[in-house]
Amino acid sequence: MENCLFCKIASGTIESEMVYSDEHLFAIKDINPQAPTHLLIIPKKHFATLMDIEDSDQKLMGSVCTVAKSLAKKNDLEVSGFRLVVNCGSGAGQSVFHIHFHLLGGRPMKWPPG
Ligand code: AMP
Ligand code: ZN
User: Distance between CA atoms of 8 and 53, rounded to whole angstroms?
Assistant: First the structure.
């Protein structure tokens, strides 16, 4: 997708701090971290929001969870805990319209979220 920030990061046109990459997903450090660990797990395929996924994307979406688990382990978050968050739509705070999953940890978290 032209003019999509995360498509440009996926293709290497825009630099980022990449912490994980495979055939279908990559993860970067968030540029404006909201917790000591704040990573974004991002499918390489462009979906504007969670509402754009189809049944055929179930395997890909499942792999987001296994990548999150492995990155949580790598960042020593197994005991302290972490959040995996997807903002869907501007009303939920989504600002980049290429689906991404926030992995947040390293500080106490409150509930309900803001
Ligand atoms: P959301 O508001 O859920 O759409 O999340 C978008 C996230 O992307 C925010 O947490 C931003 O800080 C982050 N972000 C924006 N631009 C970049 C960038 N160039 N590299 C890394 N993270 C970014
Ligand atoms: Zn995109």
Answer: 20
Q: Which domain holds residue 51?
A: 5-105
Residue 38 annotated in active site? no
Give the list of residues 6+ apart from residue 15 with CB closer than 8 angstroms, or none: 9
Query: How is residue 10 written in tokens?
Result: 């996926």
Model confidence pLDDT, tens digit, residues 14-33: 999 999 999 999 999 999 99
Say yes or no: CB of residue 13 within 6 Å of ligand 1. no
Whole-prediction pTM value? 0.98
Ligand with smallest separation from the Cα of 52 = 2
Answer yes or no: is 110 within a domain: no
